[in-house]
Amino acid sequence: MTAPVLVALAPGSPDARSRRSLAELVAEVRRTRPDLRVEAAVLAHGSPSLDDTLARLADEGVEEVVVVPLLLVEPHLAGADLAGALDRAGRRHPRLRLRASAVLGPEPSLLEVLDLRLRDALAAARVRELDALVLAAQGTADALANQAVARLARLWGTHHRLPVSAAYAVSAPPATGEAVRAFRGEGRRHIAVGSLFWSPGPLHDRASELALEAGAVAVSAPLGAHPSLARLVLARYAVGAVELVPV
User: Fold this and answer.
1) For 69-116, how does the pLDDT look when each residue is reduced to its tens digit (9 = 90+)?
2) Which of 199, 200, 198, 191 is nearest to 219 (CA)?
3) CA 156 to CA 189: how far, in whole Å?
4) Can you name the CATH fold of 5-104+225-244?
5) Which tens digits make up the pLDDT trace of 201-240?
6) So what's the architecture of 110-219 in CATH?
7) How far apart, in whole angstroms, are the C-alpha atoms of residue 78 and residue 51?
8) Separation CA 12–CA 172 (nearest Å)
9) Which of 71, 130, 172, 204 has a beta carbon 3.0–4.6 Å from 197's, enabling a disulfide?
10) What is the rounded CA–CA span in Å between residue 170 and residue 117?
11) Where are the alpha helices (DSSP H) in the chain?
12) What is the pTM of this model?
């Protein structure tokens, strides 16, 4: 029995760095599971679109697909767009059985990659001492999703025994610059920012710029195509594949 195809779905961006990150992550997933067919798609602002990818798979006779959204939080808008795209594809290709998995995060296993990226940033900045951390994420109008990021930030801070604040690029306060300034107002001077973004783009650029302007000593790169992220994609896929099995 052929395993369902995994479609790794990025939100989409006109930024070329985001497209490269998607290609690199898909390549890492394929290296981890060479027996599995893995395709890339974007929800908006790029190609291949989810509609085009699903149409091509249906034309090839593929019967089952699990779509894994490459999101670290679950904003309402993206969820609605994904549900609409899957509904349209289901009507166009009635023989194609589809399942969308849960999003990737916030997930404690991501902290391993976050620490690795932050260590690289601290080494580049020649910083050896920290007295506070900021966890920067995209942010969403969904208060529960933002609270999940804040819980992950607290877990991160507990692990490092440092005070920590969550900050958001859009839709919710505080911004990264505000979070850094708040710590500096407490007399803390060695404040680093960990980036809970899976790929580069304008939101990460802006969060980094605001943090550095406010006095952060280092800002980490996005998580990128790390094996831990590939394993998380596959874990979400596995749950979706089980849900496709008829009861």
Assistant:
1) 998 876 544 555 677 777 887 788 888 888 888 888 788 889 999 999
2) 191
3) 19
4) Rossmann fold (3.40.50)
5) 889 999 999 999 999 999 999 999 999 999 999 999 999 9
6) 3-Layer(aba) Sandwich (3.40)
7) 15
8) 21
9) 204
10) 22
11) 16-32, 50-59, 76-92, 110-125, 143-160, 176-185, 202-214, 227-244
12) 0.88
